[in-house]
Amino acid sequence: MEEVDRILIHSLRSCGTEVPEDIQSIRQFNTELIVEAVVRCLRVINPSLGATLSHVLPPGMSAQFRIGTSLAQACQDLGYSSEVGYQTFLYSSEPDIRALLIFLAEKLPRDSSEDAHQPAGKSALLQREIVATIKQQLSLPWLPLSCRIAALRRSQSSCRLHRFHSQPLSLASDPALKSIPNERKEYWQRYLPSVTSQLPHLPSVAASLLERNTSKLSAVQEWEAEWKSQGLASRLSPEDYRSKKQQRLQKRIQEQLRQCAQLLAENHLPSSSSQDLTDMLRAFNLDGGSDQKKGSRFTRTQRFTYQQDPHTLKEQMQRAAEILPKKDAQDADAEQQEISSLQEQIDSIEQEIRGLSESNKLLQLTIGQVEGEVNDMHQSCEEKANVVRVKKRAVELLPDADNNLDKLQTLVDASAQRMANLIGQWESHQARLSDEYMELNRVQQEQEDESSRWMKDAKDLYEKIQGSADEAKRKEELYKQLLSEYESLPKEVSRAAYTQRILEIVSNIKKQKEEITKILSDTKELQKEINNLTGKVDRTFVVTDELVFKDAKKDEPVRKAYKYLAALHENCSQLIQTIEDTGTILREIRDLEEQIETETTKKTLSNLQKILEDYRAIKQENAQLLARTREA
Predict the structure, then answer these.
(1) Any coiled-coil ranges, and where?
(2) Which stretch of DSSP H or E encloses residue 138?
(3) How many C-beta atoms lie closer than 10 Å to residue 90's C-beta?
(4) pTM for the whole thing?
(5) Cα distance between residue 271 and residue 356, in whole Å
(6) CA-to-CA distance for 618 and 203, rounded, in angstroms?
(7) Of 459, 600, 515, the residue nearest 93 (C-alpha)
(8) I need a labelling partner for 174 at 20 to 30 A (CA). Which of 216, 275, 286, 459 fits?
(9) pLDDT in tens, 605-619
(10) pLDDT of 380-433, one tens digit each?
(11) pLDDT at residue 469 is higher than 60
(12) Among 299, 290, 292, which residue's Cα sits nearest to residue 372?
């Protein structure tokens, strides 16, 4: 029990219970220490349950009874099945308190906050450091600004707080990837600014990095989930699956843009929106290049000129504004007038461009209608030409109609004969091809089944690989966490002493098991020998009784001997029964001695004295209350 008590005391100290160093056993716990230990454990196990309980025993007896009842109810709510009440805490016994503390110690969360089977690695250590820092800061009293020292000004001031505002960042990818162009790698190495230089405000660096990291992690998780659910079933490589997905997405965007363009055209909305959609459709290659194929050389040259000059003028204006140095006020006014005139020219040119684009659209619609009419006319001309060709052939055959009919009949008969031969050949080929088709279909089905089985095996293998990777990652984090905890432990503790103590305990347990096994085997042998002797005595008495009884009918001395034999057997039976009763009494005596020792450990006399003292204290409190009531 000493080792158990030491482990319990260590667990109670880790929960915050102030157990004195001189206490080494549960037997030395008093009522105040028991109440504090139970309340501390309840607060760690269930903070909402232990928050309403005080770990300090109040002086009044009624308050002590109430807190004892509350503690008993809290332990029962946690699932403690043994009998517990206020007397367990106020008039405690060593076995009951030890059983209750063992139950609470088993309910404590491992590592005081986490389960050892769910390590969190660096994140757990970071959270612990954050919690420790926050607790340390909360433990400091709040002081006015004029009374704070430098450290308190930094910790209790709100000037270092900033809003979580993230901005997009440009970061370099892995340079080992082959798909990245060399120009981009050179840009990353020479010209890409640092993260702190990309943002206008330094406090937004952490928020931007966290946002980018979170978006990357979520994208990776979404891709893994999609690849497990749909990618493996498509039997495509990851690159092909991504390209197919991109094509499907592009087609959907194209259909949506086409529908929006049609709605704008049907509702006669402003031309600017329709023009924007048309340009976007051209970017997706939806217009089929009709605008580029149609139109004269003059219209294409004019469109190019009027669409390019305004941008060129704007770029030239921006360059001129950047290159020209600052001049005096008169030169600035002249430049401003020139810029305004150029802006007016640009506006007029843009207006002309919009008018020309509208006229171009009308011309394109007209050209489309004319092309449709031309195609219809070409189709009708081809149909009429076919009819004329047939009629011309018939007119050429009319002069020699009889011979032509005979020739035609001969051709028909030959065609019929050839058709019959072809049908026979086709039937033979059809049977052979049908067999080949059935065989190929069977082979294909087997291959599909084999492919499905391989796909299922690949998916299971992929899941096993993922599970192994997760398990390896979890074990690596657990290793790092245990290593950090080991490094944080005090180095003066001798590991060899604990190991030697554990080995001694194991050897003692082994010796006890050997002794118990030896005692059990001796008991079995003794019981077997007693049973053999009892059976032998019974058999001997039966045989002797039969032999003596036969001679007792004829001889008087033998009759006396038979009576003595019966009396001897009865006395031996009484002696054996007396021995058995003596053994039973001895066992009962040992049980009673153990019960006496158990009752002695329960401190019955001291508890009775304490109960009497509490009873007198309650009577005194009641008398004081009655006196106050009468005075009131």
Answers:
(1) 243-269, 326-367, 400-540, 584-628
(2) helix 122-139
(3) 20
(4) 0.34
(5) 12
(6) 65
(7) 600
(8) 459
(9) 777 777 888 788 888
(10) 898 888 888 888 877 777 777 778 788 888 888 888 898 999 998 888 888 888
(11) yes
(12) 290
Can you tell me the distance from the alpha carbon of 229 to that of 252, in angstroms, rounded to the nearest whole number? 22
d(CA 140, CA 151): 11
Closest CA to 278 of 286, 267, 290, 269: 286
Contact 40, 12 (CB under 8 A): yes
Of the listed ranges 204-213, 363-372, 490-499, 515-524, the one predicted with least confidence: 490-499
For residue range 279-315, what is the model confidence (pLDDT) as tens digits? 656 655 544 444 444 444 444 444 444 444 445 545 5
Helix ranges restricted to H, 174-324: 182-190, 195-198, 204-226, 238-267, 271-283, 290-293, 297-323
- Tokens for 169, please give them: 């960042």
| Residue of higher predicted confidence among 51 and 626 | 626
For residues 439-460, one letter each, b for 16 or more C-beta atoms within 10 angstroms of the residue's C-beta and e for the rest, the string is: eeeeeeeeeeeeeeeeeeeeee
Supply 383's token pair: 């149909």
Sign of CA dihedral 612, 613, 616, 622: negative
CB distance 85 to 68 below 8 Å: yes
